[in-house]
Each structure stands twice: as C-alpha cells, then as structure tokens.
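Lay summary. Proteins are chains of building blocks that fold into shapes, and those shapes determine what they do. In this project we predict the shape from the chain. Here is one chain we studied, written as its sequence of building blocks.
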Amino acid sequence: MRTISMTLLPWVVTPVVLVALTLSGLAHANPQRAQLQANFQAADIDRNEQLNLAEFKTFINLNADHKLGRSASVRRFGMYTTAFKEIDANGDGVVTKEEIAAQTKQ
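And here is the predicted shape, written in a compact code that computers can read:
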C-alpha cells in the first residue's frame, strides 16, 4: 500500500472537493459541472442524495475517468477513505452535496 505525506493530503483531497463544487445546483452552467452532477447521480445507487463510502469511491472513479479535478490523484494514492472523512464534516458516514460544497468555502 502506498503512503502519502500528510503535507500532501490537502493537495490531494481539497481539489476533489473543489471539483465537486458543481454539485451545489449549478450543473447547467458548464459541461464539467453537468458531468459532476451526472457522476454524483450515477454513484448514488440508493438515490438518497448522499454517498456512503462505496458510492463515494465510485464518484471519485467516475470523476477520475472524466479527468475532472484531481480525482485521479485520490484514486492513484488510494486516498478514498481519507478524502471521504475530510468531506464528511458531521461524521455520520455519508457525504452530501452540501458537505461537498461546504468544503470549497473553507
């Protein structure tokens, strides 16, 4: 298993969040935002408008496949759980669109 320095963590995790800013309801504004919205919806298997860890991994992988943000870095370094925990602000085990958007405002 690869490890990553904690000093690199913000470089890997924060861009994922920045890419996901589009989930705040502005998906129609540009093609990348529309793709991110589509990726969130595709990953949300149970259609509850939130992502558990497995769904989040799918979301990151779809974003990486579409070369959105630095999701490929999260995938490459296997930082799914770290990124998930960073975004899951209230620690309830799911990531919402609002939590993703809130990360971009920090």
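What the prediction tells us: The helical segments are 9-19, 31-43, 53-65, 71-77, 80-87, 97-104.
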